Structure to design on (679 residues):
């Protein structure tokens, strides 16, 4: 970065923006912030990474007890499906929940440095993705232990994660920008995320739901991702996304919601980014 | 003009819309149907100036004059409402020391993070580590988390990171006020060095002696407009004049100019009578002021109040004319106040307010200047706003 003072030309200063200061700086910062944040949870406490595993595992144990002993759900490999879903939804919850207040929490940086604003929520998502990656190793260990045979479709895991990651990024942008203006978005999102937990086949298999309700559930953009994960990762005989939707309409709705959230996220964040510092 | 321009600001405007009632929840937004009321605050009204490459350029002005807003627009933290800013060369994106430091991370990691914020690659940032730590004299603490650093150590690290960056344009908002005396000396040396280098600095401060010492040129902002620009000594004097002559009612409009008594000069001095702006903790401090009457004033009282950066009035004193003289000031007469003040102030930034009353009546305000002096007490941090003498000792009792 040895700039030549003799040749520097006057360039217009654009003011604050989502990306601010070039792509390479953006990615360097994004990477560094995510990694340091990840390291902090990993090495920060005595039990480090174990803590982030204890929560989903405990939840898993409780739910497993309830749903196999009380409600008697009996489908192939239900326990590992449950664990897989809890971990996957845990990523969704951790990433969006953390992102909502992220810009507010980094107030000092936003108000006093020229910092690409977009890095802040995205770093939270990326950190959650690292945790998800580690947790998945444990989940796959359980899957083998519970007698799920390795399938070639396991290789399609990134195909499932990619749309989820994009969706979570868009939500993170939308929520973190809105939260600067309206401070109660944090509280509202906790409720919405909990509702989504039940509106997505996380703890119950989609096969247990019938009729209109099932079609409504399919219109939730998260449902096709989770259902496809069921087919590809756990049980290739499980009901496919197309069959579960019972027609193109719910899937079109899910697709539209997905695209709408993505566009809205980018648009809102871009619109708010130049003014974020003033509103803190 | 021979030198190339580093910063060109033309017609920059910034207006803040301050809602009379801030709606900051979605619930309120959805349940309130009426239009929101705004009070408009024009922070900058078409400011234009140029800074040459290699210049050390000072911006002074009272609180609320728009100088921090201007700095934030230069740093791309705020968006300007109108006008244009152009710059040549890379800018250090910090306007305050130590922002972007993460207390949970070690110095090593923070230096890297800060370097990347400045636009370095990670590798470059890491290669700077040694130089940064050496300047800050913190080599032994490289793997200590910043939350365990003292405030002085933090500032040293932050200053060092800023100085060791490659940025050609530095924006600095009130930094010299930190660290112990020896580090201050070091900072001062660095400032002199930068002053003579090709780097361009925009320096915002309240410290007029610093302006005169370092700045090639300076600019005085008042109510979002440029009041004076040019020679730093001139600008510093206009700033002081602006501060001292401020009459009650804040704006000059209702007073029609100068108050009946104005403050011509005010200063702090050390034990040897040398004027100072930074005071060492518990060191001997002298106070002096010169007041000038422009009309006859009966029974004048002069009051000075020392306020710390939290707005707490730490101490103050008031006095009138000597008892053996007539209790009246005639136009053209001057009053000199001088003496020593007991220095028990905790380290930090202080502002001195001045009041002048007539007929020994607090209702008859002649002059009220919210900020006639601005100084820093440096030294070891202690608890509280003042340090009192104590004679507490410990004894051990029991078996």
């Amino acid at each position: 970065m040895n700039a030549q003072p003799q040749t520097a030309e006057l360039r217009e200063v654009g003011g604050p923006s989502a990306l601010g200061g070039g792509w390479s700086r953006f990615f360097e910062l994004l990477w560094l912030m995510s990694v340091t944040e990840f390291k902090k949870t990993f090495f920060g406490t005595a039990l480090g990474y174990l803590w982030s595993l204890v929560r989903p595992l405990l939840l898993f144990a409780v739910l497993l007890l309830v749903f196999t002993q009380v409600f008697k759900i009996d489908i192939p490999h239900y326990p590992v499906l449950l664990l897989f879903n809890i971990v996957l939804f845990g990523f969704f919850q951790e990433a969006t929940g953390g992102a909502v207040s992220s810009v507010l929490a980094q107030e000092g940086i936003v108000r006093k440095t020229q910092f690409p604003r977009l890095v802040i929520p995205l770093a939270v998502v990326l950190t959650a993705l690292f945790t998800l990656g580690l947790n998945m190793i444990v989940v796959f260990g359980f899957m083998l232990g519970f007698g799920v045979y390795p399938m070639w479709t396991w290789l399609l895991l990134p195909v499932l994660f990619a749309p989820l990651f994009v969706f979570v990024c868009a939500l993170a942008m939308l929520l973190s920008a809105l939260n600067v203006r309206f401070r109660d978005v944090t509280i509202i999102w906790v409720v919405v995320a909990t509702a989504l937990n039940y509106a997505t086949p996380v703890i119950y298999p989609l096969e247990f739901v019938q009729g209109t309700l099932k079609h409504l559930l399919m219109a939730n953009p998260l449902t096709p991702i989770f259902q496809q994960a069921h087919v590809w990762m756990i049980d290739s005989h499980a009901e496919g996304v197309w069959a579960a939707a019972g027609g193109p309409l719910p899937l079109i709705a899910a697709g539209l919601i997905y695209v709408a959230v993505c566009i809205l996220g980018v648009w809102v964040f871009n619109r708010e980014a130049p003014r974020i510092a003033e509103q803190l | 003009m021979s030198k190339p321009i580093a910063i060109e600001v033309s017609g920059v405007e910034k207006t803040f819309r301050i809602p009379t009632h801030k709606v900051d929840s979605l619930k309120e937004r959805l349940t309130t149907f009426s239009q929101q009321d705004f009070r408009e605050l024009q922070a900058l009204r078409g400011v234009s100036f140029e800074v040459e490459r290699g210049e050390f350029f000072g911006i002074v002005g009272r609180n609320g004059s728009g100088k921090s807003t201007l700095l934030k627009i230069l740093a791309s933290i705020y968006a300007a409402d109108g006008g244009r800013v152009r710059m040549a060369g890379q800018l250090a994106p910090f306007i305050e020391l130590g922002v972007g430091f993460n207390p949970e991370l070690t110095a090593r990691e923070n230096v890297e993070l800060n370097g990347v914020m400045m636009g370095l690659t990670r590798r470059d940032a890491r290669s700077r580590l040694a130089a940064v730590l050496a300047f800050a004299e913190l080599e032994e603490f490289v793997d200590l988390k910043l939350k365990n650093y003292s405030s002085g150590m933090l500032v040293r690290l932050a200053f060092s990171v800023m100085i060791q960056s490659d940025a050609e344009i530095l924006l600095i908002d009130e930094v010299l006020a930190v660290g112990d005396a020896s580090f201050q000396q070091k900072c001062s040396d660095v400032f002199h060095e930068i002053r003579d280098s090709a780097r361009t600095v925009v320096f915002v401060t309240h410290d007029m002696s610093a302006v005169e010492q370092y700045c090639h040129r300076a600019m005085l902002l008042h109510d979002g407009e440029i009041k004076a620009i040019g020679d730093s000594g001139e600008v510093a004097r206009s700033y002081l004049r602006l501060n001292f002559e401020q009459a009650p009612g804040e704006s000059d409009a209702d007073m029609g100019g100068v108050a009946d008594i104005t403050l011509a000069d005010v200063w702090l001095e050390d034990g040897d009578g040398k004027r100072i702006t930074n005071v060492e903790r518990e060191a001997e401090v002298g106070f002096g002021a010169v007041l000038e009457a422009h009309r006859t004033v009966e029974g004048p009282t002069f009051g000075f109040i020392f306020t710390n950066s939290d707005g707490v009035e730490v101490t103050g004193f008031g006095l009138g004319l000597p008892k053996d003289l007539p209790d009246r000031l005639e136009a053209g007469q001057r009053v000199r106040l001088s003496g020593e003040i007991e220095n028990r102030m905790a380290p930090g930034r202080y502002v001195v307010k001045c009041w002048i009353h007539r007929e020994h009546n607090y209702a008859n305000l002649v002059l009220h200047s919210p900020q006639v002096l601005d100084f820093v007490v440096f030294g070891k941090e202690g608890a509280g706003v003042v340090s009192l003498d104590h004679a507490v000792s410990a004894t051990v009792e029991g078996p």
Q: What stands out?
A: The longest strand of chain B covers residues 5-19. Chain B touches chain A through 48 residues (CB under 8 Å). Confidence is low (pLDDT under 50) at residues 247-257 of chain B.
